[in-house]
Amino acid sequence: MRVLLVHPSPLMYSEIYLRLEPLGMERVAQAVRMAGHEVRIIDLQTFSHAELYAEMKTFKPEAVGFSLNYLANVPEVIDLAKAVKGRLPDCYTFIGGHSGSFIADELLEHGRGTIDCVLKGEGELSTQLLLKAIPKREVATVPGAVTLEGKGPAPVLLENLDMYQPARDLLRRRRKYFIGELDPCASIEFTRGCPWDCAFCSAWTFYGRSYRSATPEKIGEELASIQEPNVFIVDDVAFIHPEHGFAIGHEIEKRGIKKRFYLETRADVLLKNKEVFAYWRKLGLRYLFLGLEAIDAEGLKLHRKRVSMGTNNEALDVARSIGVKVAINLIADPSWDKERFAVVREWATSIPDIVHLTVATPYPGTELWLTESRKLTTHDYRLFDIQHAVLPTTLPLHEFYSELVETQREIARKHLGVAVVRKAAKLMGRLALEGQFNFIQSIWKFNRVYNADRQFADHQQKVVYEIRPPGPIMPLSKERSELYIHPKPRRAAVEAEAAAVPGVA
Ligand code: B12
Ligand code: SF4
């Protein structure tokens, strides 16, 4: 079968800081290719809609699959499915990915017959099965499949992460992917899943609170095949098991791989496993992203981060002493008033690290979605991007955005301001000589992207597709398994995994 896989356009955040390769879709593409199909990828982060339609004309796909990791992309993906059916009525359309998995029925309803199937969960195995089932009209037997005609059994976890290395060769315009000065930048996955259970996050509910690793040998092989000098490690929490991090490092040394790395981890993991992070500094680790989320005990408890502020501060000291640049995320609550913003501003500008603010957002698939008692102020999917407020703000909405933008701008002045631009001139000169302009362009976009008027105006847009709001507040079971996309794997295995992790009850 001729299969075209499509990733939607970038969201607000990606307009300035980064644009990264659609790794999950590349893995699905590889699985589809290995099953004997002809497959192409179009990433609308770097291609236009017109280019997608031109590709459809020449390639004439028999199936088009959309990647829907982000809720804010829902309207675009529904409109694209409609456009595909309009142009190629016999083409099979399906949607997969993180957010799509949590709202499958809702998507089918919006699609009004133009979306043939939503494939919940990990896509490697299920897409192979789906493509096999389409000609036989047996789609409703595929694990994870949700169609207007019926649903398949629960999705199945990929047991061996080594099996499908991403089809990076199918992704065009690869030099368009970057994160800050790491330009151009590729992505890689070392582990999948997360054993914690933060209330605002759906990473653990998607994977049924499981956690799996690729083998160090296979990772070494994959890293050696990557052309880009920079690599973003997509793991939710890097180096939970230090021996895995060391073993990957040894593969890197053995193969003489020289790259610069960006990764995300937790404060307690960094503290417990500082040796592995220090070792990776020597291997090329440049940036470390820490989701601190709050700067006080009350906030940390609310998000169920299972770390204290003391641990967070200690972790920051460790990261700085290792010599990596630290990026911190804090969650801004819509209830924040001017004083709260001022406190956060003062804290964020008093530390040497890069601080990002995201807005507390209940997402389908998170515990917050079912337990948050505040009513949504909008049903516009596009605003569910953790940069907009979808819950009632204490300040008038425009003022909330003004405070948010001012805080972000003041913090950014330290890192993206004229002084830094001057300091970075040498670096930019080198990038320009290499024909890399992503980072350079991102610096000039800041004021256009972070703009209170623009954010406020986003709320006034016409809403065509409305999110299905959560029902009445629901008491969750102790296991909270009703939130899971992939059923939780065998209890003993999960407990053994959790026991090896700091702070997980
Ligand atoms: C890496 C990552 C990013 C990267 C790159 C993402 C990219 N280009 O795809 C960056 C840093 C850019 C990023 C940015 C953001 N992210 Co992000 N990100 C992740 C993270 C940690 C891992 C994703 C990943 O690559 N996993 C590894 C690959 C192999 O898995 P995968 O992509 O999920 O793909 C699998 C399945 O989903 C499925 N699948 C995927 N595509 C398709 C397509 C088809 C047809 C099928 C059948 C199946 C399928 O099969 C794949 C293989 O099993 C996830 C958390 C998570 N664990 O999922 C959050 C996550 C997806 N991000 C999230 C958010 C909120 C954001 C931002 C909006 C944050 C912000 N500050 O603004 C931005 C917006 C990005 C944008 N589009 O512009 C949320 C999504 C919330 C939501 N419900 O919408 C998540 C779930 C994090 C969280 N804990 O809440 N992100
Ligand atoms: S530790 Fe990170 S990935 Fe894991 S549940 Fe919490 S926020 Fe999500």
From TrEMBL:
<keyword id="KW-0489">Methyltransferase</keyword>
<dbReference type="InterPro" id="IPR006638">
    <property type="entry name" value="Elp3/MiaA/NifB-like_rSAM"/>
</dbReference>
<dbReference type="InterPro" id="IPR051198">
    <property type="entry name" value="BchE-like"/>
</dbReference>
<dbReference type="GO" id="GO:0008168">
    <property type="term" value="F:methyltransferase activity"/>
</dbReference>
<dbReference type="Pfam" id="PF04055">
    <property type="entry name" value="Radical_SAM"/>
</dbReference>
<dbReference type="GO" id="GO:0032259">
    <property type="term" value="P:methylation"/>
</dbReference>
<dbReference type="InterPro" id="IPR013785">
    <property type="entry name" value="Aldolase_TIM"/>
</dbReference>
<dbReference type="InterPro" id="IPR034466">
    <property type="entry name" value="Methyltransferase_Class_B"/>
</dbReference>
<feature type="domain" description="Radical SAM core">
    <location>
        <begin position="180"/>
        <end position="414"/>
    </location>
</feature>
<keyword id="KW-0949">S-adenosyl-L-methionine</keyword>
<dbReference type="InterPro" id="IPR036724">
    <property type="entry name" value="Cobalamin-bd_sf"/>
</dbReference>
<keyword id="KW-0808">Transferase</keyword>
<dbReference type="InterPro" id="IPR027564">
    <property type="entry name" value="HpnR_B12_rSAM"/>
</dbReference>
<keyword id="KW-0408">Iron</keyword>
<protein>
    <submittedName>
        <fullName>Hopanoid C-3 methylase HpnR</fullName>
    </submittedName>
</protein>
<feature type="domain" description="B12-binding">
    <location>
        <begin position="8"/>
        <end position="141"/>
    </location>
</feature>
<dbReference type="InterPro" id="IPR058240">
    <property type="entry name" value="rSAM_sf"/>
</dbReference>
<keyword id="KW-0411">Iron-sulfur</keyword>
<dbReference type="Pfam" id="PF02310">
    <property type="entry name" value="B12-binding"/>
</dbReference>
<keyword id="KW-0479">Metal-binding</keyword>
<dbReference type="InterPro" id="IPR006158">
    <property type="entry name" value="Cobalamin-bd"/>
</dbReference>
<dbReference type="InterPro" id="IPR007197">
    <property type="entry name" value="rSAM"/>
</dbReference>
